[in-house]
């Protein structure tokens, strides 16, 4: 079995790499986007070592740039603190506001010079490390690890391949191919459980999760150790995060050429944006891969865990300190106040009173919130407080009243919408009888040709919630279904190229298939009934004619490819199964579900115009056909296979589709793809016709049924 690599098509222009020739520069830190582009180019050439070298370096350099910028800004902030005495001013002179302003801006200029010099010395020219939004998105999605897992697998470095795959999957839990790869890795010899690690894990979060794990196991001493490290690392990460917020102004929809605010409004706009970013650090640091939402009340929860861990370790002084710290965030928490009273009684009230809470974080955060609320009230600059613990009086009363009124309005609207939905449901129920009667006299609008009486148009595009879609029943008989199913099994036993192999789409299923040409050749060799091969072609041709007629095509519809396929569930591989039998895809373009796009270029079969599936049985579990949106997640319609049923549709991006997992039994169908371009007509059909004519003395003895 081979791993499948569902990588997005990435086209980037590599920037020229300029070297830093400044005297203080000891080395040149290569630009991240240049390294990334080089690695991607090497990937498509199969140069795996170059992929690894450049992609690993890109990850390291990106981390280095982030670290250096944070360190420079923190270091310069310490060197040019605004609370220091301003040089040359001495005692403040009454009425000398302009002089004080000059002193303030002296500090601003000094800090700017400090940061610029520090970053230039350590990183080189600032323009070298400006990464495009597209490349930044790839790193946010952890795409480099997708490339790395392939490259490491190719050179048989399984431990590194597993770590890269696991790291990518944590940030992309809906990526079905990577999930299957990880399942495959678990079965490989030499792969250890410890290889499944998150290479992007942040220290504070890793320690917090370890602390929770020990806490759950009642190992309170170890839990406290890890929670303490997590707190220290959180404060370090918070400082770095806030320092990195002090970057360029994001115009956020403004045309910067038209932005004409004065000096102080410009400063206000930028500083409010910086403060908003700094407040959001609390959310960013509470996020971990594998969770849809950040941890609630993240920092205060550390002290909740700590106070109980210390209590169980009989370390009452530390328990009191952590309980008091938690109460800084939630002073009215009844349980914690009871805990504090108990700890104080055990230790002694006098001694307990001498123990202080840890306050280094709250004061700065509250001041930031007050400034942001002032900006909200005075300038209308929106601020949404990310914390649950913010004291009520930090928000101005006018805003509190407005927020209360907004909540009441939202609740009223929600109630009204609920009542309206109930009324709509009642109307729908009342109209069901009428609509069921009307459906009997509705005629297909997508095709003007009347189909044979024994073929029923069960659902059209509207009922299937899309366009260029149709569901037909009664296309073939039960006997014909059984004969084609027997043909598939017989062809598989005689060597169809798939026997004994897992499905190319799911490791939990077996796959067998046969083309028309293969069936006829096996028939000529006496390995399968020749009449069954003839039936295969006849019924495929019947479906082709039906589509040509139903969709009212002005030109001939040609076969592009035909395949009789059976998928069988592997019983021992069905536990906790969440993959699809056939992942969601589009037949004539490359689906990039993350971007809701479909790229119509090779290696996609861009010449395909229509598709159809003729189902042969229903005695299995799972295996329903689904239509989805371009996100490959939102199901718009679902079709249950049964003998003689055909689902047909346009092969373009309007019809992403897939197959749910077959969890029991065998699912058989004839998959058919058609084209309007005769240049792409399936060559094997011509071979088939020639072969059939030769076998019948120059006369074709089996003709397609007329529709």
3D architecture notes:
- The protein is about 50% helix and about 10% strand.
- It is an alpha+beta fold.
- It has three domains: about 30-195, no CATH class; about 210-375, no CATH class; about 455-570 and about 580-695, Jelly Rolls (Sandwich), CATH 2.60.120.
- The strands form four sheets. Strands 1-2-12-8-15-4-3 form a seven-stranded antiparallel β-sheet. Strands 5-13-10-11 form a four-stranded antiparallel β-sheet, with no helix packed on it. It has a two-stranded antiparallel ribbon with strand order 6-7.
- Mean pLDDT is about 85; it is low at about 1-25, about 435-445, about 495-500 and about 695-705.
Structural class: alpha+beta
Q: pLDDT below 50 for ≥5 consecutive residues: which ranges?
A: 1-25, 435-445, 494-500, 696-707
User: How many distinct folded domains?
Assistant: 3
User: How many distinct beta strands?
Assistant: 15
Span between termini = 43 Å
Which strand order spans the largest sheet, edge to edge or round the barrel? 1-2-12-8-15-4-3
Radius of gyration: 34 Å
- Average pLDDT: 83
CATH 4th-level superfamily of the largest domain:
q2cbj1_9rhob like domain
The best one-word shape is elongated
CATH topology of the largest domain: Jelly Rolls
Largest sheet: 7 strands, antiparallel
The number of distinct helices, counting runs of at least 4 residues, comes to: 20
**CATH architecture type of the largest domain:** Sandwich
The fraction of residues in strands falls at: 5-15%
